[in-house]
Amino acid sequence: MTYTQLAVFAVACAAGLDMYVVRTRLLTRKAFWTSYAIILPFQLLTNWWLTSRKIVMYDKGQILGPRLASAPLEDIAFGFALILGVLALWVFWGRRGIDAKKS
Hints:
Order of helices and strands: HHEEH
Structural class: mainly alpha
Mean pLDDT: 91
Number of helices: 3
Low-confidence stretches: none
Radius of gyration: 16 Å
Number of strands: 2
Number of domains: 1
Shape: elongated
Largest sheet: 2 strands, antiparallel
Strand content: under 5%
Distance between the termini: 38 Å
């Protein structure tokens, strides 16, 4: 499986989790997209720092090729999937009164 295929799979899994499993439906909310717009520049900065210094490198045969802030576009997809998945679970568990401090 290529990095591109994994990235697409990760986004599909996160979207499925949000829309159908935990049913938080963050993808339909303006607040989610506003939050993502705030987080994205920091992701791009981190990706740029890691990839421009060759701390993280990618096999050119495993990615699409286009880069944003020195990182492959697939990194944006992975970051999106991680943010969506974490926030969906946060909202889901919060609605059920699960408090990490009590565990």
